[in-house]
Amino acid sequence: MDAVDAPRPDLELESLTTAQQELDRLRTEELRAKTGQLSTHARQVPGGEIVAERVTDVEPNDLRALATEVVDRIGPSGIVTLGIERNGKAFLVAAVSLDLLDHGIEARQALGAAARAVGGGAGGRGAIASAGGRHGEALDQALANAAEDAIRLLDRR
Predict the structure, then answer these.
(1) How far is 17 from 39, CA to CA, in rounded Å?
(2) In angstroms, rounded to a whole number, what is the distance separating the alpha carbons of residues 99 and 81?
(3) What is the pLDDT along the chain (157 residues), one digit of tens a residue?
(4) What count of other Cβ atoms lies within 10 Å of the Cβ of residue 89?
(5) Which helix (H) or strand (E) is 45 found in, with range?
(6) By C-alpha distance, which of 62, 122, 107 is closest to 86?
(7) Which of 93, 147, 88, 81 is nearest to 119 (CA)?
(8) Whole-prediction pTM value?
Protein backbone atom coordinates (compact mmCIF):
# COMPACT_ATOMS: atom_id res chain seq x y z
CA MET A 1 0.00 0.00 0.00
CA ASP A 2 1.49 3.32 -0.95
CA ALA A 3 1.16 6.53 1.04
CA VAL A 4 -1.73 7.80 -1.12
CA ASP A 5 -3.93 4.76 -0.34
CA ALA A 6 -3.09 4.56 3.36
CA PRO A 7 -5.97 5.21 5.78
CA ARG A 8 -5.87 8.57 7.50
CA PRO A 9 -6.85 8.12 11.15
CA ASP A 10 -7.01 11.87 11.65
CA LEU A 11 -9.64 12.22 8.89
CA GLU A 12 -11.63 9.27 10.23
CA LEU A 13 -11.60 10.76 13.72
CA GLU A 14 -12.67 14.13 12.35
CA SER A 15 -15.57 12.48 10.49
CA LEU A 16 -16.67 10.66 13.65
CA THR A 17 -16.46 13.85 15.69
CA THR A 18 -18.53 15.73 13.11
CA ALA A 19 -21.13 12.93 13.04
CA GLN A 20 -21.35 12.92 16.85
CA GLN A 21 -21.82 16.69 16.93
CA GLU A 22 -24.61 16.40 14.39
CA LEU A 23 -26.32 13.66 16.43
CA ASP A 24 -26.06 15.80 19.57
CA ARG A 25 -27.54 18.78 17.73
CA LEU A 26 -30.45 16.69 16.43
CA ARG A 27 -31.10 15.21 19.89
CA THR A 28 -31.16 18.70 21.40
CA GLU A 29 -33.64 19.85 18.75
CA GLU A 30 -35.81 16.79 19.38
CA LEU A 31 -35.82 17.42 23.15
CA ARG A 32 -36.67 21.09 22.59
CA ALA A 33 -39.63 20.06 20.42
CA LYS A 34 -40.78 17.55 23.06
CA THR A 35 -40.52 20.25 25.72
CA GLY A 36 -42.89 22.46 23.76
CA GLN A 37 -45.29 19.59 23.12
CA LEU A 38 -45.34 18.48 26.76
CA SER A 39 -45.79 22.05 27.99
CA THR A 40 -49.08 22.25 26.10
CA HIS A 41 -50.32 19.30 28.19
CA ALA A 42 -50.06 21.29 31.43
CA ARG A 43 -53.23 20.99 33.47
CA GLN A 44 -54.37 23.86 35.66
CA VAL A 45 -55.22 22.61 39.17
CA PRO A 46 -55.85 24.45 42.44
CA GLY A 47 -52.51 25.98 43.41
CA GLY A 48 -50.63 25.57 40.12
CA GLU A 49 -50.09 23.47 37.02
CA ILE A 50 -49.12 19.84 36.56
CA VAL A 51 -47.85 17.64 33.76
CA ALA A 52 -47.80 13.86 34.23
CA GLU A 53 -47.03 12.15 30.94
CA ARG A 54 -45.55 9.05 29.39
CA VAL A 55 -42.93 10.01 26.84
CA THR A 56 -41.54 8.07 23.91
CA ASP A 57 -38.41 8.29 21.82
CA VAL A 58 -36.42 9.59 24.79
CA GLU A 59 -33.58 7.87 26.59
CA PRO A 60 -33.73 7.49 30.38
CA ASN A 61 -30.70 9.78 30.69
CA ASP A 62 -32.60 12.59 28.93
CA LEU A 63 -35.63 12.50 31.25
CA ARG A 64 -34.11 14.80 33.88
CA ALA A 65 -33.27 17.52 31.38
CA LEU A 66 -36.66 17.18 29.70
CA ALA A 67 -38.59 17.43 33.00
CA THR A 68 -36.53 20.45 34.07
CA GLU A 69 -37.16 22.21 30.76
CA VAL A 70 -40.90 21.52 30.91
CA VAL A 71 -41.27 22.79 34.49
CA ASP A 72 -39.32 25.91 33.55
CA ARG A 73 -41.59 26.49 30.58
CA ILE A 74 -44.90 26.08 32.43
CA GLY A 75 -43.84 28.66 34.97
CA PRO A 76 -44.30 29.10 38.70
CA SER A 77 -46.10 26.55 40.89
CA GLY A 78 -45.55 23.69 38.47
CA ILE A 79 -44.93 20.00 39.05
CA VAL A 80 -43.86 17.80 36.14
CA THR A 81 -43.63 14.01 36.20
CA LEU A 82 -42.44 12.18 33.11
CA GLY A 83 -42.04 8.46 32.61
CA ILE A 84 -40.77 5.97 30.09
CA GLU A 85 -40.79 2.20 29.82
CA ARG A 86 -37.68 0.37 28.62
CA ASN A 87 -37.13 -3.37 28.54
CA GLY A 88 -39.99 -4.01 30.94
CA LYS A 89 -38.77 -1.42 33.47
CA ALA A 90 -40.21 1.96 34.35
CA PHE A 91 -38.20 5.16 34.75
CA LEU A 92 -39.75 8.31 36.17
CA VAL A 93 -38.52 11.82 36.89
CA ALA A 94 -40.30 14.61 38.72
CA ALA A 95 -39.39 18.29 38.75
CA VAL A 96 -40.89 21.14 40.74
CA SER A 97 -40.60 24.86 40.12
CA LEU A 98 -38.26 26.74 42.41
CA ASP A 99 -41.04 28.70 44.13
CA LEU A 100 -42.46 25.41 45.44
CA LEU A 101 -39.17 24.65 47.17
CA ASP A 102 -39.71 27.81 49.21
CA HIS A 103 -43.00 26.26 50.36
CA GLY A 104 -41.30 23.02 51.39
CA ILE A 105 -42.43 21.01 48.37
CA GLU A 106 -39.75 18.79 46.86
CA ALA A 107 -39.90 16.68 43.72
CA ARG A 108 -39.44 13.42 45.62
CA GLN A 109 -42.81 13.98 47.32
CA ALA A 110 -44.52 13.65 43.95
CA LEU A 111 -42.95 10.25 43.27
CA GLY A 112 -43.60 8.09 46.34
CA ALA A 113 -46.83 6.41 45.23
CA ALA A 114 -45.62 6.30 41.63
CA ALA A 115 -42.45 4.47 42.63
CA ARG A 116 -44.43 1.92 44.65
CA ALA A 117 -46.73 1.32 41.67
CA VAL A 118 -43.79 0.24 39.51
CA GLY A 119 -42.20 -1.81 42.27
CA GLY A 120 -39.35 0.51 43.10
CA GLY A 121 -38.31 3.52 45.09
CA ALA A 122 -37.74 7.23 44.64
CA GLY A 123 -34.64 9.26 45.32
CA GLY A 124 -33.44 12.79 45.03
CA ARG A 125 -33.91 16.04 46.80
CA GLY A 126 -34.88 19.54 45.95
CA ALA A 127 -36.25 20.45 42.56
CA ILE A 128 -35.60 17.11 40.82
CA ALA A 129 -36.06 13.46 41.77
CA SER A 130 -36.16 10.13 40.01
CA ALA A 131 -37.72 6.71 40.50
CA GLY A 132 -37.68 3.40 38.79
CA GLY A 133 -38.99 -0.08 39.10
CA ARG A 134 -39.22 -3.48 37.51
CA HIS A 135 -42.93 -3.26 36.64
CA GLY A 136 -42.92 -1.19 33.48
CA GLU A 137 -46.45 -2.31 32.68
CA ALA A 138 -47.64 -0.21 35.65
CA LEU A 139 -46.21 3.06 34.28
CA ASP A 140 -49.59 4.58 33.40
CA GLN A 141 -50.91 3.88 36.91
CA ALA A 142 -47.70 5.32 38.36
CA LEU A 143 -48.18 8.53 36.36
CA ALA A 144 -51.80 8.76 37.55
CA ASN A 145 -50.55 8.35 41.14
CA ALA A 146 -47.95 11.08 40.55
CA ALA A 147 -50.62 13.42 39.19
CA GLU A 148 -52.79 12.82 42.29
CA ASP A 149 -49.82 13.48 44.57
CA ALA A 150 -48.96 16.66 42.66
CA ILE A 151 -52.52 17.93 42.97
CA ARG A 152 -52.49 17.18 46.71
CA LEU A 153 -49.12 18.93 47.17
CA LEU A 154 -50.23 22.05 45.31
CA ASP A 155 -53.57 22.19 47.06
CA ARG A 156 -52.04 22.07 50.55
CA ARG A 157 -49.55 24.89 50.05
Answers:
(1) 33
(2) 17
(3) 555 566 677 777 777 788 778 777 777 778 788 899 999 999 999 999 999 999 998 888 899 999 999 999 998 999 999 999 999 999 999 999 999 999 999 999 999 999 999 999 999 989 999 999 999 999 999 999 999 999 999 998 7
(4) 17
(5) strand 43-45
(6) 62
(7) 88
(8) 0.84
Question: Measuring CA to CA, which residue among 141, 123, 140 is closest to residue 132?
Answer: 123
CA 155 – CA 58 distance, rounded (Å): 31
* Residue ranges per structural domain of the chain: 31-156
| Count of CA atoms in the C-beta half-sphere (13 A) of 133 | 24
Q: Domain 31-156's class? A: alpha beta
Which amino acid, residue 31? L
**Whole-angstrom distance, CA of residue 68 vs CA of residue 60:** 14
Distance, CA of 53 to CA of 61 (rounded, Å): 17
